Amino acid sequence: QIGWYAVHINANDIAVMGGTPRWFLATLLLPEGKTNQQIVEGILSQIDKSCREIGVVLCGGHTEITYGLDRPLVIGHMLGEIDKEKLVIPENIRLGDKIILTKGIAIEGTALIAREKRELAEVLGEEFVKRCQQLLTSPGISILREARLAQEVAPIHAMHDPTEGGLATGIQELAMAAQAGMIMEMEKILILPETVTLCRTLKLDPLGLLASGALLIVTASAEAPKVVNTLRKAGIPAEIIGTITEKEKGVKLKREGKLVDLPVFSRDEVAKLFAGEVA
């Protein structure tokens, strides 16, 4: 589903800045001696369908057979529109703002592991593995809907879609961009039951696992409950998981009543797993 991935991941990047995705360009690099018409048409069909689903025009790109590749690569470039005064950037974050998390963490990581490690069915059952695989589309990795809904009901100070390195890395990136500190509450962080079971079985930390599908929304303390309620009414799980603090206080995690440093992940947990560094 490489074409589908390319469209949605790029569209998310426009949405977190408050914009609307409009135009997509794709470069396809295809392996020599392993490419046929079916592969090319399949990828282009995924891209075209995905663009149509979110109202984006596929307006250009490039396709070539490239020496030295063992699989197809898609490089995407998404353009969007936004009123300049409505641009959502981390510089807007203020002391005391609340941080909202939608849907849950490690959605993509859970689905990816279940798709790549089919042997998990022997331990956790075929039905469980299929459930994990389906997380890629339900609740899914697109955050366009929740980003739009949040902006309709409150002034949003910042948004970020954590990806590689999981929620923990996404939080660190947001704090660095805003030059702020943060306190996160572990008990409030949304984690799907499938993710909990998979991570426990494979000895992975969900905080550092590929997190596409989650959206971090920062807004004023007084506005946060309204945003959460709006998302929940639309069927999107949402929870206030943290507070903006002074930069000097660092990025902290409140776990079982104790305040500790938020873990730092130099590599995504899924990369460690596929490299054989964990069970």
Average of pLDDT: 96
- Rounded to the nearest angstrom, the radius of gyration is 19 Å
Order of helices and strands: HEHEEEHHHHEHEHEHEEEH
Strand order of the largest sheet: 5-7-4-8-6-9-10
Label the structural class.
alpha+beta
- Give the class-level CATH name of the largest domain: Alpha Beta
Looking at how many chains there are and whether they match, the oligomeric state comes to single chain
Low-confidence stretches: none
Tell the overall outline: globular
Work out the helix count: 10
CATH overall fold name of the largest domain: Phosphoribosyl-aminoimidazole Synthetase, Chain A, domain 2
Going by CATH, what is the homologous superfamily of the largest domain?
PurM-like C-terminal domain
Would you report the number of β strands?
Answer: 10
Helix content percent band: 25-40%
Number of domains: 2
Cα distance spanning the termini: 27 Å
CATH architecture field of the largest domain: Alpha-Beta Complex
Strand content is: 15-25%
Major sheet, described briefly? Answer: 7 strands, mixed
